[in-house]
Amino acid sequence: MSKREIYRILDAAANRGREALRVVEDAIRFLDDNEELARKLKETRHRFAAAADKLDRGERMSARDTVGDVGTELETPDEYERATLTDVLTANFARLQESARSLEEFSKIVEPQLAKEWERVRYESYTLEKIAYEEAAKLERDEEPVEDAPSEEASIKDESAEEEPIKEEPAKEAAPEQKTTTPENPAPELENDAREQVAQAVPFARADELSPRELRKSKLRRSNLCFYVDRPFADADAETLFNSKIGVFQLCYYPDDASSSPESILFLEQIRAAYADETNALRRPLLLTRDFTVWAEDFDGGVLTSENWREARLELGDDRLLGAAVSTLDEALSAFQAGEEGILDFIEAGPVFCADGSVAPTGLGLLRAILEAVNEKPPIPVFAFGGIAEGNVDDVCYAGIERVCVDASVMNEQDRRLGRIRFASMF
To answer: Do residues 407 and 227 make contact, with C-beta atoms less than 8 angstroms apart?
Structure first.
C-alpha cells in the first residue's frame, strides 16, 4: 500500500468524522438546547480538528480523489431513514467512531504520533453518545402526545361516581363547560402567548422579558454566517438570501449619507417587505452597518474599523449591538476587554485571506493566536472575514473559528441561487 493510498484513507476518514461531529453538535445545540453537552461536543470537535491539522495537508490534498471514489456510489436504504433525533445521533456517532478507528489504525503507518489522539477522541465519543442519547430520548418522551389518557384526578372521580349516588347540584354551582380550542374559538391565553409560541418555534427568537439588546445578542450567538451586502440585489436574489440560513446582514456601501444611497434604500425595502408581519419580524436576521451612521430603526447595530468604541457606544445607545473589526492580537485583546465591560458585543478578525485596502492579509495565524490567548473561549463571539469562500472556509473552521463573514463573491456566477444555498448550508 502506497503512502498516497494511506493519505487518501486518512483524508476521507477525517472529513467523515468532522461532518459527523458537526451533525451531533448541531442537534444538541439547536434541537435540545443543552449548553453543557454542546460545549463538550465542541471541545471534542476542536480536538478532532487539531489532530487532523497535524496530518500533512499537501499529502491529503494530493491523495484526494472524490470523483474516483467508488464508495460514493454505494448506498443502503437505511441511509435515508431518520425518523427521530435519536436516529440522527445514533447514525452520526457511529460514523464518528468508525472514522476515529480508521484514523487511529492507518495513522500508525505514516503519522504514528497521532494514533493516541484519535484513540482519545474515540473513547470520548462513547461517553458523549451515551449522554446525548439519554437527553434525546428524554426529549422525545416529553414531546409524545398523550391521547385519550384520563388524568389521575379524573380516574379517582370516575371511581367515586361508581361508589356514591349521584347528587343533583344547583345550576349555579355547576362547573363551566370546557370549550374546545379551535381556530374559530381560540383560547385567550394562547393569544396572549403567541409571541412565546413563535419563540419556541423559531431558533432566533427569545422570550419577551429579554431587553432589545439581549434579544439581539441571542440572535448573534446563534448566527454563524454574516453576509456583506456590498452590491444591489434583484428581488428574487434577495428573497433567496432571506430564505437561507444567514443570521446577519451587514451593509458595506460606505456612503457619505446612508439615507441617500439608492443601494441601501433598495435592500432596506427588500428586508422590510420580507419581514413585514409580526411573525416574520421575529425571524428577521440582524442588520448591521460598517462604520455606521445611525439613521434608521431597522439597524440592529454597527461594526467599527477604528477603536473609538466607547464614543460609538454612547452614540449608538444601549439597545443596539456594537462590533469591532480587528487585525492584530493586541486589538483583539483590547476588544475582548471592551466586551467584558459591556461596550462591545462581538469582533470581526481579519482580513484572513485577502487585503481590504488598508491592512494586509492576516492569514489563519491571527485566528489561532486569538483563540490561544483566551484558551479557546472568547468572551464575545468572533467572526472571521476577508476572502473567505467555499474553498477555504474549512481552513477557518479547522483553525477553531466557527463564524464567518462573506460577500457576494462566494456565489456561483452561473447559478447564483444554488451558490448561496450551498454555502449557507455549510453552517
So the answer is: yes
What is the tens place of the pLDDT at every residue in 343-376? Answer: 999 999 999 998 777 788 999 999 999 999 998 8
Which CATH number does the domain 212-425 belong to among 3.20.20.70, 1.10.10.10, 3.60.15.10, 3.40.50.720?
3.20.20.70
In DSSP notation, 158-203 reads HHHHHHS------GGGSPPPPPPP-SSS--HHHHHTHHHHHHHHST
- Here the cell at position 358 is 488598508
Round to whole Å and give the CA distance between 15 and 275. Answer: 37
Q: Measure the CA–CA gap between 379 and 334, rounded to whole angstroms.
A: 12
Rounded to the nearest 10 degrees, how much is the dihedral formed by the CA atoms of 100, 106, 109, 113? 0
C-alpha dist (Å) from residue 133 to 103, 121, 129, 140: 24, 18, 6, 10
> Could you read off the pLDDT of 118-167 as tens digits, one per residue?
888 888 888 888 888 888 777 777 665 545 545 444 444 444 444 444 44
Query: Is 285:251 a contact under the CB 8 Å cutoff?
Result: no
- First-to-last alpha carbon distance for the chain, in angstroms, is 36
Asked if 302 contacts 290 with a C-beta cutoff of 8 angstroms, the reply is yes
